Amino acid sequence: MSQPDDFGFGTQIRKSPFFDATVKWGAKGFSVYNHMYIPRDFGDPEQNFWNLVNDAILCDVAVERQVEISGPDAARFVQMLTPRDLSKLSVGQCKYILITNEQGGILNDPVLLRLEENRFWISLADSDILLWAQGVAVHSGMDVSIHEPDVSPLQLQGPQSLEIMKVLFGEDIADLRYYWLRHLELNGMPLVVSRTGWSSELGYEIYLQDGSRGGELWEAIMAAGAPFGLKPGHTSSIRRIEGGMLSYHADADINTNPFELGLDRLLNIDMDAAFIGKAALQRIRAEGVSRRQVGLVIEAEPLKGPNTTFWPVFGGTGTGAQSPVGKVTSAVYSPRLQQNIALAMVSNGHSDVGTKLEVAMLQGKVQATVVDRPFFDPKKKIASG
To answer: Which of 141, 93, 80, 140 lies closest to 120 in space, CA to CA?
Structure first.
């Protein structure tokens, strides 16, 4: 079997504190996210999906790097980064936010954690927001300190995750509400625990604040979870697409605005507070958008894995040769729904539910139909209930 030192391209790609433990527990392949290795292969991805939705999986997501913002002006500075109204964000609360640039383009879609009155973490998707925040701070005139702390999260996700958390932290962990956090310890390891995750399932994120103890934390959780069917795993493309969750650089990027994604609920662009992109987002709202994200069901043989290129989308059959009307950004076969499901960005005239389209895959054009998204549990009752 390959040893941990056999993986890698050099020291410029970092290994997480849990890296050696994931290899010991069967990680066979990695991808790179935020300049760090993330396990992407623990065997059959369909079995990983069933482990997640039936029992629980533990995922190394240390690639969700934290940007810590602290200081007397921290709250005002964080508000300047996002069009979501943070005026009622309490200490101990988390929010899913968008970070936008001056043109209203999305730079990241992280989870924001308010640890203390004047101390925040931005738990990142895959882009360099540490550099953005430090650059914004230079001429802001605000008294803030911005750095990347020694923090590495794990995700414990699935219907048995609460029972495992009770073994680790006691019965009162059941009182932790959706999108709230607690400061805890386990065997002397300093942790922040939040009821969040990138799975659309019941789950928790466990943020280790001592990178020297990564293997110890991993083993403690796996031992606690053994009676409940806990398996090592990786973030499930199947489940996140079922849940309509975004993958940055795939479903959104710097040239995508929140209105195109139907994320108006995350915006309060008329609030008094200043934020980057305010004028642009007001203009986009007034003018409207020319394309929208939709869900698709693709009528083809079950996909063997997620798409690795953007597939062109064309108008329905019988319309003759024409230019693409959009692209598939994320696609996968759902064994639960027994369908190929996808997120796509298409022009307005082709975005209504029920619209027939064609997708150009490697084997040629296949039929597709626009459907509502998320594809499963649209009210998010599993994760929030």
So the answer is: 93
